[in-house]
Specification:
alpha/beta; TIM Barrel; eight-stranded parallel β-barrel; two-stranded antiparallel sheet; 13 strands; binds flavin mononucleotide
Length: 363
C-alpha cells in the first residue's frame, strides 16, 4: 500500500526514507530567547515518531530584527546550537531526515515583536501588518546575507542535513523576489536577475561555507496579488536558483494579503496548489515539494505516481495526527484523527499565545 510514498528519495547522497514532509510550522513553543524547550522537543519527537521522511524544523529566525513571533526558535547566537543538537539527535533516531527553515520576516511582522524598526526591500507597508518598514541599504543586505550564512553553518553544526531558505509568503527574501513588494532601482530591484540577487547571494554564500549541506528553498510560485509573482515568472526564477546551488525546492503560494493561499481553505478542496509544483517541476531537475490541503497518503501517492511532485508536505494533517504516516503504512486508516480546518493552529491570527489543535491533546 502507498508504495510510491514509501519509495526512498536520494538527494545528493542523503536518503529521505519516504516522500512525506512535515513542513516548517511556527509553534511559538521556544523560549523568549529562541531556545529549544521540552514542548518543542515533544512536538517534533511525535512528528518524527509518526514517520515523516523529512522533518523541517522551524521556522528559525536568523536576525534579531527578523522575528515574527515572541517565542520563535533562533539561530542568532552560538548558544542556540546545543539545544538544537540534542533535538536533532533525538528525532533522527526515528529515521527522519532533518532540515531547518531559516527566515527573516521582513515587513510581515511588527516592531513591537522585534524591538527593531521593520526592514524590507522597499519602504512599503504590508497591507495586513500596516507598519511601514525601512528600505534596506546594500550594507544591511550584506549583513543579513551573512546572518543566513552563519545560521546555516550553526544548523549544520547542530546536525541538520538540510537548510531551507524561506523565500515564500512575502517575508524578507520573498519580498525581494516579487515586484509587488520590491520597487528598488539598484542592483537588488527591477528585472529578475536583480530581484533574485539577494537570494542567489545567500545560496552562494551558504554553499561556499557549508559544502556538504543540502540547500532547499521555499517559494510562493503564485502570490495571487496584483503585480506579484506568477507561475510564469516563477518558472524563470527557479532555474536561476538551481544554478546558484539549491538541491530541493518547495512550492507554496500566497502572501499575508492572500493568506487563504498560504493556508488553503477547506473550500479550495484537495491539493489546490499541486499544479504550481507540477509547473515548477517542468523546468528544473531538482526534487520538488508540493503542499496545501493534502490530507491523506492516498492522494500523496497519486501525486507522486503522476510525477507532479517528488515530495509531499502535509502540515495541518500531521499537527492533528502526528502518527498519520505510520498509521497509513500499517493499514490503520480508521484510527487517523483528521484535521477539520478549524485553524485554531493559526495562533498569529487567533491571538492565542502559541499553536494548539483541538484534535491533538499532546501539544
Ligand atoms: C500555525 C502555522 C504555522 C506555520 N508556520 C510556517 C513557517 O514557519 N514556515 C513556513 O514556510 N510555513 C509555515 N506554515 C505553512 C505550512 O508549512 C503549510 O504550507 C500550510 O499549512 C499549508 O499546508 P497544509 O494544508 O498541509 O496545512 C504554517 C502554517 C500554520 C497553520
Amino acid at each position: 500500500m502507498f508504495e510510491k510514498v514509501f519509495t526512498p528519495l536520494e538527494v545528493r547522497g542523503v536518503t529521505i526514507p519516504n516522500r512525506i514532509v512535515f513542513p516548517a510550522f511556527q509553534t511559538n513553543y521556544a523560549t523568549r530567547e529562541g531556545f529549544v524547550t521540552e514542548r518543542v522537543t515533544n512536538f517534533y519527537r511525535n512528528i518524527a515518531k509518526g514517520g515523516a521522511g523529512l522533518t523541517i524544523v522551524g521556522c528559525i529566525a536568523v536576525s534579531k530584527d527578523g522575528f515574527g513571533a515572541t517565542n520563535v526558535l533562533q539561530l542568532t547566537d552560538e548558544r542556540h546550537v546545543e539545544g538544537l543538537r540534542k533535538l536533532f539527535q533525538e528525532i533522527k533516531s526515528y529515521g527522519t531526515i532533518v532540515a531547518v527553515q531559516l527566515i527573516h520576516f521582513g515587513r510581515q511582522t511588527s516592531s513591537s515583536i522585534t524591538g527593531h524598526p521593520l526592514v524590507a526591500p522597499s519602504a512599503i507597508p504590508c497591507p495586513v501588518m500596516k507598519e511601514t518598514p525601512r528600505e534596506l541599504s546594500e550594507d544591511e543586505i550584506c549583513r543579513i546575507e551573512d546572518d543566513f550564512t552563519i545560521a546555516a553553518l550553526r544548523a549544520k553544526n547542530a546536525g541538520a542535513d538540510m537548510v531551507e531558505l524561506h523565500a515564500a509568503f512575502g517575508y524578507l527574501i520573498g519580498g525581494f523576489l516579487s515586484a509587488y513588494s520590491n520597487k528598488r532601482t539598484d542592483k537588488y530591484g527591477g528585472n529578475l536577475e536583480n530581484r533574485t540577487r539577494f537570494l542567489r547571494e545567500i545560496i552562494e554564500k551558504v554553499r561556499s561555507k557549508v559544502r556538504d549541506l543540502l540547500i532547499g528553498c521555499r517559494i510562493s510560485a503564485e502570490e495571487f496579488v496584483e503585480g506579484g509573482l506568477t507561475l510564469e515568472e516563477s518558472k524563470k526564477i527557479v532555474p536561476m536558483l538551481v544554478d546558484a546551488g539549491i538541491d530541493v525546492i518547495s512550492v507554496g503560494a500566497g502572501t499575508y494579503q492572500t493568506m487563504n493561499h498560504m493556508l488553503p481553505t477547506k473550500e479550495m478542496g484537495e491539493g489546490p496548489h499541486v499544479y504550481l509544483a507540477e509547473g515548477i517541476k517542468e523546468v528544473i531537475d531538482v526534487p520538488v515539494i508540493c503542499v496545501g490541503n493534502i490530507r491523506d497518503l492516498g492522494f500523496a501517492q497519486k501525486i507522486i505516481a503522476e510525477e507532479r511532485a517528488d515530495l509531499v508536505a502535509m502540515g495541518r494533517a500531521q499537527v492533528a495526527d502526528s502518527q498519520i504516516v505510520n498509521k497509513s503504512k500499517n493499514g490503520l486508516l480508521n484510527s487517523i484523527v483528521e484535521c477539520d480546518w478549524c485553524n485554531r493552529c493559526m495562533f498569529v491570527v487567533t491571538g492565542e499565545p502559541a499553536m494548539s489543535c483541538p484534535k491533538n491533546p499532546n501539544l
